[in-house]
Write a structure and sequence with these properties.
- With 129 residues, the protein is an alpha+beta fold.
- It has one domain.
- Helix content is 16%, strand content 22%.
- The chain contains two helices and five strands, in the order βαββαββ.
- The chain has helices at 44-56, 76-83; strands spanning 10-17, 60-63, 70-75, 98-100, 111-117.
- A five-stranded antiparallel β-sheet has the order 2-3-1-5-4.
- The longest helix has 13 residues, at 44-56.
- It starts with 9 loop residues before the first strand and ends in a 12-residue tail after the last strand.
């Protein structure tokens, strides 16, 4: 645990690379999935470039089965440094439970969005004893 004992040092965010067709990932969040997800998926080259860029910055990068998003994971300090924002943006102390990060300049054309859902304050675990 880091400076704030309430929250872990490790942060994970969802990265949505731009799709090959320009269709938006968020369009899939309402209604049934279409039979063909290809228009919503980024090209393999885009996924590889985005993956390699975040790995080169020190993040761990994980694929998801549908091939539309990546999860990047790292310390609060690494995120703060890479995205030039305060570490407190990752500890749930902000007004909004959702934080949208701006892609690094070299990835701006390749990324649709980067979103972090900040953790909520841990519940009192006295009942677990």
């Amino acid at each position: 645990m880091g400076k704030d004992k309430q929250f872990p040092d490790i942060v994970a965010v969802m990265v949505v690379p731009r799709s090959r067709s320009g269709k938006l990932f968020r369009e899939l969040q309402s209604g049934p999935l279409p039979p063909d997800l290809t228009p919503y998926q980024p090209t393999p080259e885009t996924m590889r470039e985005v993956r390699q860029a975040f790995e080169s910055m020190g993040f761990q990068v994980f694929d998801e089965p549908l091939g539309m998003t990546l999860t990047i994971e790292g310390s609060r300090a690494l995120f703060a440094s890479a995205f030039n924002i305060p570490e407190t943006d990752f500890d749930g102390s902000g007004e909004s439970p959702e934080v949208h990060l701006r892609p690094p300049a070299r990835l701006k054309a390749l990324i649709q969005s980067i979103s972090l859902i900040t953790p909520s304050k841990p519940a009192d675990d006295t009942h677990r004893r």
